[in-house]
Specification:
GO biological process, one term: isoprenoid biosynthetic process
Order of helices and strands: HHHHEEHHHHHHHHHH
Mean pLDDT: 90
Largest sheet: 2 strands, antiparallel
GO molecular function, one term: prenyltransferase activity
CATH topology: Farnesyl Diphosphate Synthase
Strand content: under 5%
Strand order of the largest sheet: 1-2
Keywords: Isoprene biosynthesis, Magnesium, Metal-binding, Transferase
Cofactor: Mg(2+)
Radius of gyration: 18 Å
Oligomer: single chain
CATH class: Mainly Alpha
Family: Belongs to the FPP/GGPP synthase family.
Helix content: over 70%
Number of domains: 1
Low-confidence stretches: none
Amino acid sequence: MEYLERRRARVEERLEAVLGGVEPAELADELGHVTLSGGKRVRPTVTVLVCETLGGDPADAVDFAVGIELVHNASLVIDDIIDDSEVRRGVPSAWAEFGFGPAIIASDGLLGEAFALFSSNERAMQAVSESMVELGEGEATELVAQPENESEYMELARRKTGALFRAAAELGAIAADADAYTVEAFGQYAERVGIAFQMRDDVLDATAEADDLGKPTGHDAAMDRPSLVQVTDLTPEEANERAREMSDEALASLSTVDAEDSEALAYLEDLAEFVVVRER
């Protein structure tokens, strides 16, 4: 785990530096509350690991890693407003702490800081922009037309969760100056990891204790949200099996890449397996 912690620490250090330069101080406090209150840092870790897997210098991927984490956190601020969630990562959500207006401004601020980090690289800008289009369309679709079967659920999960995971991996490959085929292969891997992550999230919402999860549970059922369990009537065990199948597809995508047999690659493989057994 020391291997991963060193990489997370580098991302965390750069994240703090970026947020430390935000003005005014009130906005900096809001962005820090949202972003520095915890989080798994899965997406930025994927960015760094993909870069290393391809023989790139992890230092070249850190700004992209921080950027995708900021985009992710911006989306969480809006999710909490839509869901009326008062807690995120064991602390008050942005709107509960600061009010709706400041929370929306905080989301905008996070996106602005993120795109400043991507702006020097056209390929990075394209990858992130495409993922945000998918995310926005997924969020809008969920509000107006909830999925009614497993196929529609999978498409929504791909857009809402898979898209940002895809961008995280693509950014790592871009940082390593990879060719288009390699960028796409890593993107497929991460998109499938993201979908499996969302499926497991749905199971945890239905089965975990709120104190263990760090956020309210039972939200999907209470709000009639389109979780895998709600849409398909699968049992939690069957839903977990679906997530494992998606994880296997992610590993299959990863196996098509001509990458070094490195520690970084091993951690990417471990991630695909971990997302379907995690408890938080």
